[in-house]
């Protein structure tokens, strides 16, 4: 029966075409492509692929062709650059993962997680409008850099200094792969700035090339011949032009020719940088500590992640109160333990002088580092600030938040997150907290009251952020406000460090 029906349909079709040659039959509309660009070393890409994409693709995947492109492949990286060029993505907003769909580019974990689904829903509701916009965007000519690949040239050696977990360094790594593909004469040697030898080489090369002292050991950075390129100037064109320039004469790996005198001078500069170059302190230790970039970045990530999960305002406020309570209790108990130990040590005169005097000196060093961070923030180099959490702790905090925020028991998950994150953040916030507790120990009668008061003020910025989100302020707006005031916060922290240091010196010797 089916064969007969099929034969009849074919016969009717043939007859129709013969008798009415102008007739056409509708062809199925091709599905649009969604381009998902990711990087192997990107924790945000991994999080989106694990937590967001499975549910998203299950719900909408039948409507489009999903194409995942690893940017470690130079061809895919070229595709990403072409799409960014067509859309007009500013350099400062480029991030991974990146998604192109219907004329729109979304870059970064939070934008992809919060805006991609509404974009797809808007397209499904009004496909003609967005498809027309997509055609306009795709018709734009992408800016493609002409390198003259394959023309050869003398060997050019570049030194590339990077820091683990650095977003700009991750982008620079993709440019390195692109350079090596398009310039056969290029040889890039990579150095992790966390290693002692790398710090020494970066400083010595910086001095040799005339780099400003405050930019020594900056990441990402490149050295070739007698020139250097720092964050903000690291682009395909800049590095490609340098390689082309040095391809005529060649450029040796100068980091292998540094003299013992140059290395000794670099070692001395590093010691001076970490002991006195630094700067920052606070006017109000607890409030300054509560709004320092380490703690504040965690608060904003927590709020943004809750928003991405679709939590309601009341839920976010409830989670925020529970999280703040856990932070308060954790910091108070840690402080109580330190306070008890310091009080017992204070009974021994010599030991108390060593503890209070040594902590005072440490405060002044931190104050100096904070002032250094203020100038770095003013210059837009926040990733180079000295007093911040190491990359591996930031990643662990983000992983904890992602895990606990998805807990069915909202309050229990928030309490667990607050406790864990507080301990992980202590590497940063303890820089203010411990010296302040040391001073509290010298004021035996009021010490416990000071400790309670400090921790109450410490969580106020946390409560303020959750309250602001509850009353309708977006976490993005709060992040922008904080980003513009990082330098001011660092200057306030510097004042606090110097004041607490002076109080401790007074308690020890005067």
Describe this structure in words.
With 510 residues, the chain is α/β, with parallel strands linked by helices. The protein folds into three domains: 33-139, Glutaredoxin (3-Layer(aba) Sandwich), CATH 3.40.30; 156-269, Glutaredoxin (3-Layer(aba) Sandwich); 278-509, no CATH class. The protein is 65% helix and 8% strand. The chain is built from 18 helices and eight strands. Strand 1, helix 2 (43-60) and strand 2 form a beta-alpha-beta unit. Residues 8-22 and 274-283 have low confidence and may be disordered.
Low-confidence stretches: 8-22, 274-283
- Decide which structural class fits the backbone: alpha/beta
- What is the average of the pLDDT values? 74
Strand order within the widest beta sheet: 2-1-3-4
User: What is the beta-strand fraction?
Assistant: 5-15%
Number of domains: 3
Distance between the termini: 107 Å
**Strands, count:** 8
Helix share of residues? 55-70%
Number of helices: 18
In brief, what are we looking at here?
The chain is an alpha/beta fold and 510 residues long. It is built from 18 helices and eight strands.
What structural keywords apply?
510 residues, alpha/beta, four-stranded mixed sheet, 18 helices, flat
Q: How would you summarize the topology of this molecule?
A:
Blueprint: H1 2-19, E1 33-38, H2 43-60, E2 65-70, H3 74-87, E3 98-101, E4 104-107, H4 109-125, H5 127-139, E5 156-162, H6 167-182, E6 186-192, H7 196-208, E7 221-224, E8 227-230, H8 236-247, H9 260-277, H10 285-290, H11 293-308, H12 313-346, H13 349-378, H14 391-405, H15 410-442, H16 447-470, H17 475-483, H18 486-509
Helix pairs in contact: 2-4, 3-6, 4-5, 7-9, 9-13, 11-14, 11-16, 11-17, 12-15, 12-16, 13-15, 13-18, 14-15, 15-16, 15-18
């Amino acid at each position: 029966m089916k064969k007969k029906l099929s034969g009849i349909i074919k016969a009717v079709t043939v007859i129709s075409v013969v008798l009415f040659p102008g007739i056409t039959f509708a062809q199925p509309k091709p599905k649009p492509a969604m381009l998902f660009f990711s990087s192997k070393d990107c924790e945000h890409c991994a999080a989106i692929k694990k937590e967001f994409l499975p549910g998203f693709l299950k719900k909408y995947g039948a409507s489009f062709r999903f194409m995942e492109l690893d940017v470690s492949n130079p061809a895919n990286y070229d595709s990403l650059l072409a799409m960014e060029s067509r859309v007009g993505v500013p350099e400062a907003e480029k991030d991974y993962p990146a998604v192109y769909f219907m004329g729109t580019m979304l870059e970064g974990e939070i934008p992809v997680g919060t805006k991609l689904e509404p974009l797809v829903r808007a397209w499904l509701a009004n496909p003609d409008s967005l498809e027309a916009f997509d055609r306009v965007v795709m018709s734009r000519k992408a800016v493609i850099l002409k390198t003259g690949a394959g023309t050869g040239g003398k060997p050019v050696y570049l030194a590339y200094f990077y820091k683990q977990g650095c977003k700009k360094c991750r982008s620079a790594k993709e440019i390195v792969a692109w350079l090596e593909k398009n310039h056969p004469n290029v040889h890039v040697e990579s150095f992790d700035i966390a290693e002692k030898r790398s710090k020494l080489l970066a400083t010595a090369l910086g001095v040799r090339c005339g780099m400003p002292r405050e930019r020594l050991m900056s990441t990402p950075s490149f050295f070739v011949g007698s020139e250097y390129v720092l964050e903000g100037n690291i682009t395909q064109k800049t590095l490609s032009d340098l390689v082309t320039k040095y391809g005529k004469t060649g450029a040796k790996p100068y980091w292998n020719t540094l003299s013992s005198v140059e290395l000794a001078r670099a070692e001395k500069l590093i010691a001076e940088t970490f002991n006195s170059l630094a700067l920052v302190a606070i006017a109000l230790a607890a409030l300054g500590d509560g709004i320092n970039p380490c703690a504040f970045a965690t608060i904003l990530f927590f709020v943004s992640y809750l928003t991405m999960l679709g939590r309601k305002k009341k839920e976010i406020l409830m989670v925020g109160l529970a999280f703040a309570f856990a932070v308060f209790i954790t910091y108070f108990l840690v402080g109580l333990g330190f306070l008890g130990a310091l009080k017992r040590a204070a009974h021994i005169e010599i030991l108390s002088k060593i503890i209070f005097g040594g902590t005072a000196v440490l405060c002044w060093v931190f104050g100096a580092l904070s002032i250094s961070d203020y100038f770095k923030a003013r210059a837009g180099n926040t990733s180079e600030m000295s007093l911040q959490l190491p990359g591996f702790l930031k990643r662990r905090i983000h992983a904890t938040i992602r895990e606990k925020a998805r807990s069915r028991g909202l309050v229990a998950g928030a309490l667990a997150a607050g406790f864990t994150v507080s301990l992980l953040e202590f590497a940063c916030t303890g820089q203010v907290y411990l010296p302040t507790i040391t001073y509290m120990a010298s004021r035996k009668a009021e010490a416990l009251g000071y400790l309670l008061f400090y921790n109450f003020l410490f969580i106020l910025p946390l409560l303020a952020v959750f309250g602001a989100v509850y009353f309708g302020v977006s976490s993005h707006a709060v992040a922008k406000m904080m980003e513009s005031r990082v330098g001011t916060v660092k200057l306030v922290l510097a004042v606090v460090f110097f004041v607490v240091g002076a109080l401790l010196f007074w308690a020890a010797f005067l």
